[in-house]
Structure formats: structure tokens, C-alpha cells
Amino acid sequence: MKPPPGRPDTGASLIELAVAMSLMSLVGMMAVTGIVNTMRTGTVIERSIDAQAQLDRVYQVLDVRLRYAADINPPVTRNGVALVSLLLDNGPAPRCSQLRLKGDRFAERVWPAGTALPAWRQLADGVSAAATPPGGTTAGPFTTVADPRGYQRLTVALTSNPGSSRDRLARSVQFTVLAQNSLADTRTPVTSCEGDPSDTA
Predict the structure, then answer these.
(1) Residue by residue, what is the 3-state secondary structure of the chain?
(2) d(CA 180, CA 173)
(3) What pLDDT is recorded for position 125?
(4) What is the band of 100 on the pLDDT scale with cuts at 50, 70, 90?
(5) Mean pLDDT across the stretch 137-153?
(6) Could you count the other beta carbons within 10 Å of the beta carbon of residue 67?
(7) Distance (Å, rounded) from C-alpha 171 to C-alpha 50?
(8) Is the pLDDT score of 196 beyond 60?
């Protein structure tokens, strides 16, 4: 009895092996590329969430500081550092507050009026001044805005970019707070809170 006709060789040819290896390499490259892109996207999204959290923290702190300010100095720029000084009178004794943007770091300090200057406390990093509203006095992200009722207002405009410009996930915030204790006829000068003009450390 004759065996059924078939291929003389039952193994794979060299060409078939080469094609199979090429397909496996292609699938492997696609899988690795997908994993890398997923990790990169996750990192950018995480940085974006952190950036938004920083801006939210800045707003929460400044909303309280500015709302009860008795006087707001016009913002100034000292040695490339944007700075604004406030006088707070919502406590048992007057306190001073300063806000600044130095490089990409936004910070504040608060101290009893007439005492030594404390260290700065960082509120956010990786930030820059955003577009500010027209009018008023502007330095960096700070703009003092006139109010027809005689109060003072301060606008703060910041942009936080969590990555490179290609990420296109920059977050911006601009808010204006009215200082409720700053009526012109009851205003206390803030000169005692200006600090040392050379102090930008």
C-alpha cells in the first residue's frame, strides 16, 4: 500500500521562519510603543493634576489674605522679582503679608508688623505670570485695580505648565479679590510691610 502523497519535508523553510520572526518583532515593537506612550501620557496627566492642585492652593490662601487686607501696596519689581505687600488687620494685632513670583516659584510670607522678616513659604512652582487685565499697576502676575466704591482690589494671574509646551496641558488661573477692610477713609498705610527693598532671597 502506497503512503498518501505529501510534502517531502515536514519542517519549516528558512523563508517561513524569517517571516514569522519579522511578524513577532513587529508585534513586540507595537506592544512596547503602546506601553511607553501609556506611561508617558499617565505622567503628563499626573503633572497636570498636580499643577491644578497648586493653583487651587494659591487661590485658597490668597482669597483669605486679600479679602481681609486693610491696604495693598502697588506691586513692584525688585531685581526681576515681582512683589506685592499687604497689611492685614483681621487679628488681634496688625500683620504684614508679601507675595512674590521669583523665577517659576510663587511664595508668601506673613509676620507681625514691625518685627523681623520671616522666611518665604512656597505655594507653587513651575508657574509664570499670565496675561493681566488692562489698567491699574502691574508687576509680574499682580495688578492693583481701582474700585469705584473706594476699596482696593488685587488681581493675580498665573499659568502653571506641567510639562513641555508640546503637552498643551498648561493651566491658568486669574482671580480678583476685593479687600473688604480697605475703604479709602479708613485705610491704614502699608509702608511698615514693605520690608527691605534688597530682600529677594
Answers:
(1) CCCCCCCCCCCCCHHHHHHHHHHHHHHHHHHHHHHHHHHHHHHHHHHHHHHHHHHHHHHHHHHHHHHCEEEECCCEEECCEEEEEEEECCCCCCEEEEEEEECCEEEEEEEECCCCCCCCEEEEECEEECCCCCCCEEECCEEEEECCCCCEEEEEEEEECCCCHHHCCCEEEEEEEEECCCCHHHCCCCHHHCCCCCCCC
(2) 22
(3) 85
(4) very high
(5) 85
(6) 14
(7) 10
(8) no
Judge whether 7 lies within some domain. Answer: no
Lookup result for grid cell 508617558: 40
Question: Is 70 contained in some domain?
Answer: yes
In a domain, 27, yes or no: no
Show the cell assigned to 124. 507653587
**Structurally, how many domains does the chain consist of?**
1
- Quick: pLDDT tens for 85-94: 988 877 778 8
Q: Tell me, what's the pLDDT at 107?
A: 92
pTM of the model as a whole: 0.69
Q: What domain range includes position 94?
A: 32-193
> Is residue 16 a part of any domain in this protein?
no
| Position 165 pLDDT exceeds 50 | no
Which residues are within 8 A (CB) of 138 and not within 5 positions of it... i.e. 6 or more apart?
Answer: 75, 132
Average pLDDT, the chain: 76
